[in-house]
């Protein structure tokens, strides 16, 4: 089995096009056409994790966080990022990251895993994204059949034809953003020469793609009791939080990683608490007595993504060697 088969299974759940613009999800090192010997699942692809993969004879590391976020002009081993890349390439180890694309999906996403651990029901995306596109062009009338056949293999799209003249046909395709590139390629591949494509973002957000999550507890829970439950379920050493408001907790908003940008949505949707990581001192003031903010830590909020990788892949590949990393890649320690 090739590495590409493993990556395809992950991308069926979290297509790379759903990642944020600053992100670098996808295959970072390695050849997707190489035979895969096994995979190590981790949050961060550190040097210790690469060493672990070598010892386990695995040639694939699947991480949540991309080891490379910005351009690297030299590989001299001067920092941990360069050392990881050098070691991975030297030992023919592919590194793949499913980051904000996995954050942004409702089904089997990072935030769904957190909601599951906290026992939330009636969950939905906190901030849905606009991810539908409309592609419009004109093609030679005598190529309608070829274009139609090329598009027929792409799922979840809608096709509309018009006839502005005898020689040309108007073509309009509505597609999820994840299918935008496939639609462009399908159209261009069967035409004698490239055509200009107008592409528009549609206004209707989808309920299945976006940032954060909101849901409900089965019954109201006193604030301190709920935070102790969160501490236990999310296996975190400490929780930083705003002052208690004296209100029971039932409606819970959350976002794995650094989700402070979603606080306005959590407040607007009537959440009693907003759970995330990486809150700065002055940002806690933004609660302004309207909501309880709980910072459980970046690593702590996302650590169960490793379980998520395992669930996605083991469901599809029953005899494939998957290894949870035994390396604690959290760079933060707490003195308690």
Question: What report would you give on this structure?
Answer:
- This protein has 336 residues and is α/β, with parallel strands linked by helices.
- It has three domains: 3-101 and 304-324, Udp-n-acetylmuramoylalanyl-d-glutamate--2,6- Diaminopimelate Ligase, Chain: A, domain 1; 110-127 and 209-296, 3-Layer(aba) Sandwich (Udp-n-acetylmuramoylalanyl-d-glutamate--2,6- Diaminopimelate Ligase, Chain: A, domain 1), CATH 3.40.1390; 132-201, Alpha-Beta Plaits (2-Layer Sandwich).
- The chain is 29% helix and 27% strand.
- It has helices spanning 3-13, 47-55, 80-90, 100-103, 110-118, 144-152, 180-189, 223-233, 263-268, 298-302, 305-316; strands at residues 26-29, 39-44, 60-65, 94-97, 121-128, 132-140, 158-162, 168-176, 198-201, 210-221, 240-241, 249-258, 273-277, 292-295, 322-324.
- Strands 5-10-12-13-14-11 form a six-stranded mixed beta sheet. It has a five-stranded mixed beta sheet with strand order 1-4-3-2-15, sandwiched between helices. Strands 7-8-6-9 form a four-stranded antiparallel beta sheet, with helices on one face.
């Amino acid at each position: 089995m090739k590495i590409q088969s493993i990556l395809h299974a992950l991308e069926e759940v979290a297509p790379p096009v759903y990642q944020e613009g600053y992100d670098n999800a996808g295959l970072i090192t390695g050849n997707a056409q190489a035979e895969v010997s096994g995979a190590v699942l981790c949050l961060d692809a550190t040097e210790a994790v690469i060493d672990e993969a070598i010892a386990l004879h695995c040639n694939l590391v699947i991480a949540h966080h991309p080891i490379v976020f910005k351009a690297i002009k030299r590989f001299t081993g001067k920092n941990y990022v360069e050392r990881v890349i050098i070691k991975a390439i030297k030992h023919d180890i592919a590194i793949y990251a499913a980051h904000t694309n996995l954050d942004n999906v409702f089904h089997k996403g990072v935030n769904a895993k957190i909601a599951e651990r906290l026992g939330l029901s009636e969950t939905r995306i906190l901030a849905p994204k606009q991810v539908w596109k409309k592609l419009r062009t004109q093609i030679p009338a005598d190529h309608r059949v070829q274009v139609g056949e090329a598009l027929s293999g792409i799922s979840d799209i809608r096709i509309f034809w018009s006839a502005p003249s005898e020689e040309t046909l108007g073509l309009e395709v509505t597609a999820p953003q994840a299918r935008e590139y496939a639609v462009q390629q399908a159209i261009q591949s069967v035409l004698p020469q490239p055509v200009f494509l107008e592409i528009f973002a549609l206004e209707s957000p989808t309920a299945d793609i976006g940032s954060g999550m909101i849901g409900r507890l089965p019954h109201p829970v006193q604030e301190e009791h709920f935070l102790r439950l969160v501490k236990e379920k999310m296996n975190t050493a400490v929780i930083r939080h705003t002052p208690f408001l004296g209100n029971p907790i039932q409606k819970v908003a959350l976002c794995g990683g650094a989700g402070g940008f979603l606080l306005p949505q959590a407040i607007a949707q009537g959440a009693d608490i907003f759970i995330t990581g990486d809150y700065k001192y002055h940002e806690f003031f933004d609660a302004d007595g309207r909501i309880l903010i709980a910072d459980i830590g970046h690593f702590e909020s996302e650590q169960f993504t490793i379980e998520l990788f395992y669930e996605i892949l083991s469901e599809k590949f029953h005899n494939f060697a998957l290894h949870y990393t035994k390396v604690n890649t959290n760079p933060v320690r707490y003195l308690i």
